[in-house]
Specification:
Rossmann fold; 3 domains; 18 strands; 25% strand
């Protein structure tokens, strides 16, 4: 029998994309736009869901408040609860961990980030696919509809398409040329800064053309209108969502690991004499010379002031049999 998910998200477009991602994974999906509606829906479903994914920023009741209440109810507390956070919401990560979250991911909840989160819960086998361009994923009909409503702009080499400090207000499909943003290079067919557009997140740097470019710009209202009646379009958006590139960074161990888990990062964390390896945001290895126990090893490392992360290839094989959030609760 297929697994069943519940998505709680106030933004209709993001809710549809998350549901499309679950459907692509062979799961059934229900949706609600706030925790109160989710509670009514859960009662109608007799609480027979296998995973809940909830955004943090929600009307009436926040995602963290919903999580805390959900985990306090004995007959449903064992249902995995995944919290999605915006790029500027690092402060919510450890609150979600302490509140009982079973996994974390970045908003929007696309196909690859959701698969990584479910993998951390052992609900799916680990698997990553190279991201595809949005235009290559779309059938011809939604492409035609998008282009009919698009305005096409020429962006000269070295000029910005979007400026840092504000969210992209339009979906940008690159027709010709190359652009760079956030450590990524975009080429023809890609949706530029798609994740920031969908989540309405302010950009932390300019999106710049590294060659002369032509870009089709589509308003959010036109994107939302097409998403309402076109499941194939929602599925393509879900598959095109890519976890953000994670640069070398430093932070206290618990916050750094929570951040890397939510971003589905792959690389190595060094802290004191200890080492943590992650693949797709899942902790695969914890090493410390004083103990073979992963929790004790993290506790030793957490006594240090900061930990440092360096992205590098890490094999998916694990010697840690505990979920990331369970480990984090030991040191958060």
């Amino acid at each position: 029998m297929a697994l069943t998910a519940l998505v709680v998200e106030s933004d209709r477009l993001l809710r549809r994309i998350a549901c499309a991602a679950f459907l692509s994974l062979g799961m059934r999906c229900h949706e609600a736009d706030d925790p109160i509606g989710a509670a009514h829906l859960l009662r109608r479903l007799s609480f027979s869901v296998d995973v809940v994914v909830s955004a943090c920023s929600l009307p009436r009741v926040t995602g963290i408040e919903f999580l805390t209440h959900f985990k306090s109810v004995g007959n449903i507390s064992a249902i995995p609860f995944v919290v999605s956070v915006g790029s500027a919401d690092d402060a919510h990560l450890l609150r979600a961990v302490r509140g009982g979250a079973d996994a974390l991911l970045m908003r929007p909840a696309g196909l690859l980030p959701l698969r990584c989160a479910l993998c951390s819960l052992k609900a799916l086998p680990f698997k990553t696919n190279a991201p595809s361009s949005l235009l290559s994923l779309l059938p011809s009909e939604p492409v035609s509809t998008l282009m009919e409503s698009a305005s096409v702009r020429h962006i000269p080499e070295g000029s910005p398409l979007f400026i840092s400090g504000s969210p992209p207000t339009r979906l940008a499909l690159l027709i010709e040329g190359r652009m760079e943003w956030g450590g990524r290079t975009y080429s023809a067919g890609d949706a530029v800064a798609l994740e920031a557009f969908l989540a309405s997140d302010a950009l932390d740097e300019d999106v710049v053309a590294v060659q002369d470019c032509r870009v089709a710009l589509i308003s959010r209202s036109d994107v939302e209108a097409l998403a309402v009646g076109n499941p194939a379009f929602c599925s393509a958006l879900a598959e095109a969502v890519t976890p953000p590139n994670t640069s070398p960074s430093q932070a206290p161990l618990a916050l750094l690991l929570a951040r890397l888990h939510a971003r589905s990062a792959t690389g190595v964390v060094n802290c004191g004499r200890g080492t943590v390896k992650l693949c797709g945001g899942v902790i695969t290895t914890v090493l410390h010379p004083d103990t073979d126990d992963s929790r004790e090893a993290l506790a030793h490392m957490a006594e240090e002031d900061t930990a440092s992360f360096h992205p590098e290839e890490v094999p998916p094989e694990k010697n840690v049999d505990v979920s990331v959030c369970t480990l984090l609760r030991y040191i958060a």
